[in-house]
Every structure is written in C-alpha cells, then in structure tokens.
Amino acid sequence: MLTPAFHFDILKPYMKIFNQSTDIMHAKWRRLVASGSTSLDMFGQISLMTLDSLQKCVFGYNSNCQETPSDYIAAILELSSLVVGRQHRLLLHCDFLYRLSPDGRRFRRACDTVHRFTADVVQRRHQALSHWGREAWLKSKQGRTVDFIDILLLAKDEDGQDLSDEDIAAEADTFMFEGHDTTASGLSWVLYNLACHPEYQERCREEIKDLLRDKESEEVEWEDLSRVPFSTMCIKESLRLHPPVTAMSRRCTEDIKLPDGRVLPKGNICLISIYGTHHNPAVRPEPQVYNPHRFDPENSKNQPPLAFMPFSAGPRNCIGQNFAVAEMKVVLVLTLLRFALRLDQSRPVRRKPELILRSENGLWLHLEPLGPSREGQPPAPRS
C-alpha cells in the first residue's frame, strides 16, 4: 500500500525540499563560523535538518525548526533518548513500573505532543478531502508536491477500504522517527570519513564542481544524482563502515541448516548483525579501512548480494531507502561544494550503538567556508 509513496515520480519533487533544508543549514553554519564556532557537532546539526525536511515531505508543514525551537521536534528527540535510556534499566522494562517513573511520565507527555500534532494534520487533511471529493482533490494537487499524508489518504487496503485516521497517523509517526535519525547518522559518518581522508574529499569536490560548473544555481536536480559516481562510492563505503542501523531481526519461516550442521528451527527469531557482516574479514579484506574503491563496479560485481545491507534486505527491507539516498546525495554535494571538512582533534570519536550508530560525545568537525555561496538565491538571469 505504501510503495507508491516512494515511487521516483513522488520523490523527484522532494529534491527542492532537500535543497532548501540544506541551504538553511549551511546559512546557519556560515553564521556560526563567522562568530568563531568553527567546530560543530554534525549529529546535532544534521538531525535538525533531516527533521526539517521530513516535516515538509511528510506533512507539508514548515516549522522552521532549524532556526527556532519546536515543541513537536523537541518531543521527537526526547522520545528517542527515553527509548534508549529505558533499554539500559532492567526494572523499567516492566510497563507498570515505567509508567510510574519520572521517565515514564516524560515519555507519556512527549507521546501526547507528537500524537496531537499528527492527529491534527490528518484530521484537517481528511476534512479537506471529504469536502472536495477524491477527483477534485487530486486535480488540486497537480503541479504541486504530494506529501506522505496525501498518499496515505488516497491509499486502499487489501479489501479496498480507506485507511483510518489512526492508521495514517501511525505510519506518519513511524516515518518521522525512522527517517530522521538514520539519515542523520549516515550523513554525519560520511562527512567524518571524508574529513579523515582529505584526498577522497577533494576528489568528490572536483566531481561535484564538474557537475555544477555550467548551472545557473547550486540546486541539485534529480538527474544529477546519477552523475556523481565517486561520491556515491564514498557514501556506500561509509554506510558499510558505519551502518546507521547495526542489526535487524528476522523470524525463520523454515528450518535453516548452518554450514557446521546445526539447525535454526522454524519460528525462531534471529538477530542479524549488519555491522558484523560489513566488518567480516572473510567478506571484506581489511574491513576497518575506509576504501571507497570497494564499490567501484568492477570490484563489487562478484560480491555476494547480502555482503552490503545498510537498509536491511529482502521483502521487508527499508521502504524509504531511495528517499534517504537522494537526501544524502543532495546534502553531501552541497556541503562539499561550500565547505572543507577537517577533524576536530580535541574531540576523539568513539562509536556508540543506540537506536542508530552514534558517536559517544557527538561528532565534531571543523568547517571552512569555500568562497561566496549562492545557497537560497534565485537563478541568475540569462544573457
């Protein structure tokens, strides 16, 4: 039912949103650098940017959350933190005790904030759809970006029934939570890896300059995404070395015989380590080395299909992976065009797996603006 929400024709108009959200983030970075803050935590900065993009793509709503505080965004960030904190405290695994605890009360308040926001958007959109009728509603959307709520409102279940408001809100909430942290992690780590390897960073930058050389503005378009092969290799190698989601679980649908003769019985739930698979020396020689050339088409054509699975694998893989990759490419292209990245040697990086793969004390990089920027400016007039 949800697959149409991620069809390329739906994703293409989101490119403008990705560009705009990145422009806002970069304008903020320039102000911070000008005021003396040359080292910034990529996780904190990029998380707000991905949340900004998602609110626009999921709800068609601009909260300006990169510049001003938002109760909804604060609630999402708090819920993510509370979920991780609960995992590490055994007594709080009991729902009854958790509800009585201070964290449990904070969790309930934050949930109420998120659910109120989503329910309000869905209800107002549903009322508009009922008022206009399906055909007039679709006609009103022609030439405009269709957001995730629109797709869900028009979806039918296997019995041809519309989704309930509760179903729509649940899907929208899931995409907001799953879609911001994971993409922010993937982007933060690729910027970190390129800061560690200035030679790869510079090669990406030259590729990006060639791509945008004859453009009137710095806006990345859908067709450009396939024209940055080396930058794409750098993203893939970063997702291998630092996969945002480090593990997944699957229930066995049949008995599975392992190479040593032991059998995983049907019905068993298995935890599969994405991180372990990506770092398996039997699959990847020198697995701790960041080497984008692993993903050169010549070098990767004989790799087993499950040797690389940052978005999971099989029929239950990540439905939003094309959305995430498109956003990552736009942000990487514009960031390397406008900034040089260097490690902040005073803040060592130590990996920390939570809901997603983070860095223990943030991921701090020095930023150096590269010349005047045209972010957010209209195209120059033709001569």
Largest sheet: 3 strands, antiparallel
CATH H-level superfamily: Cytochrome P450
Ranges where pLDDT stays below 50 over 5 or more residues in a row are 378-383
Beta fraction: 5-15%
Order of neighbouring strands in the sheet with most strands: 1-9-6
* Helical run tally: 14
How many distinct domains?
1
Gap between N and C termini: 48 Å
What can you tell me about this protein's structure?
The protein is mostly helical. The protein has one domain: Orthogonal Bundle (Cytochrome p450). The protein is 52% helix and 9% strand. It has 14 helices and nine strands. Strands 1-9-6 form a three-stranded antiparallel sheet. Strands 2-5 form a two-stranded antiparallel ribbon. The C terminus is likely disordered.
Summarize the structure.
With 383 residues, this protein is mostly helical.
Question: What keywords describe this structure?
Answer:
52% helix; two-stranded antiparallel ribbon; 3-stranded antiparallel sheet; 383 residues; mainly alpha; 14 helices; single chain; Cytochrome p450
